[in-house]
Design brief:
The protein is α+β, with helices and mostly antiparallel strands. It has 2 domains: 59 residues, no CATH class; 43 residues, no CATH class. The strands form 2 sheets. A 3-stranded antiparallel sheet has the order 3-4-5, with no helix packed on it. The chain has a two-stranded antiparallel sheet with strand order 1-2. The longest helix has 26 residues.
Length: 102
């Protein structure tokens, strides 16, 4: 998983750990192997596309400075928030870091 642009979560390299297919004993081993490979590839692709197109962008907060900060050389329309976001982590814990600024 990674961040693309400023807010889009992208899933890369989706892996299917296990595929159980019950077809009985009538299918030869080579045909079964080929069918499992095709199904694994197809399902991985569907899951990958579904995850990447279904998730919304990250709701990263931004604030617009009000008037009164001009003495600090900050115009009233300056937008502050998380910039250059970086997503890192493991299966159970994800961390979003970046630079706070314009």
């Amino acid at each position: 998983m990674r961040i693309e642009g400023e807010r889009d979560v992208v899933f890369d390299q989706v892996v299917m750990n296990e595929l159980k297919l019950s077809l009985g004993d009538g299918l030869p081993a080579l045909s079964r192997e080929r069918l499992e490979t095709v199904l694994r590839t197809m399902l991985t692709s569907i899951i990958d596309r579904s995850l990447n197109s279904a998730l919304p962008t990250l709701p990263l907060p931004e604030l617009t400075l009000p008037t009164g900060f001009e003495s600090f050389n900050l115009p009233p329309t300056t937008r502050l928030g998380l910039r250059q976001p970086n997503l890192s982590g493991s299966r159970s814990l994800w961390k979003l870091t970046g630079v706070f600024g314009e």
